[in-house]
Every structure is written in C-alpha cells, then in structure tokens.
C-alpha cells in the first residue's frame, strides 16, 4: 500500500468542488453566509433575503431607515465581505 501525505479536510472538499466546476457557486453562497458575520446580529436580523447574481450581492432589508444608512457603507461592506471570503467574489452590493 502506497503511503501518501495527509491532507486537511477543507482542502479535500475545495478540490472536489473545483473538480465539479462549482467553485464560483460555492464562493457566492459563502458570501451570503458571511453577510451575518460581517454586519453583525442586529443588521442580519433586519435582512429578509440575500443572493448573488452577476457578481453583485443583492440584500433585502426590512427597515427603510437601515436601507438608507447602509448606502453610505456599501463599498466598505463589499471589501469586508471579499476579505472575509479570501477572494474578490463580489463587485458591489445592491440593497433592496
């Protein structure tokens, strides 16, 4: 039996996702998941829905005042999400 180097589970999973051609979809879903970690629990509780389409994160906020407030920090949030993901996955955030 041939002895091989041990691999981390996360690297094995990433290789399988890359081999299936679904890496972009995986990264987009990861950005949606990271939204709650980046913005915190209160803003996340005001978020009804989020998805990525054409490199843009669409976020549906239920509070009108929060929508207005978030408009000022969208570039910083975009950078923070990409930094948390470890790659440039989204180019912008659209708040609905």
Task: Write structural notes for this entry.
This protein is 56% helix and 18% strand. It has a 3-stranded mixed β-sheet with strand order 1-2-3.
Task: Briefly say what this structure is.
The protein is of the alpha+beta class and 96 residues long. The protein contains 5 helices and 3 strands, in the order αααββααβ.
> Which consecutive residue ranges, at least 5 long each, have pLDDT under 50?
none
Radius of gyration: 16 Å
* Main beta-sheet strand count, sense and barrel state: 3 strands, mixed
Mean pLDDT: 91
Q: Strand order across the biggest sheet?
A: 1-2-3
What's the total count of β strands? 3
- One letter per element, helices H and strands E, the order comes to HHHEEHHE
Overall geometric form:
elongated
Tell me the fraction of residues in β-strands, as a range.
15-25%
- Give me the number of helical elements: 5
Helical residue percent band = 55-70%
State the separation between the terminal residues, measured CA to CA.
Answer: 57 Å
Which structural class best describes the helix and strand composition?
A: alpha+beta
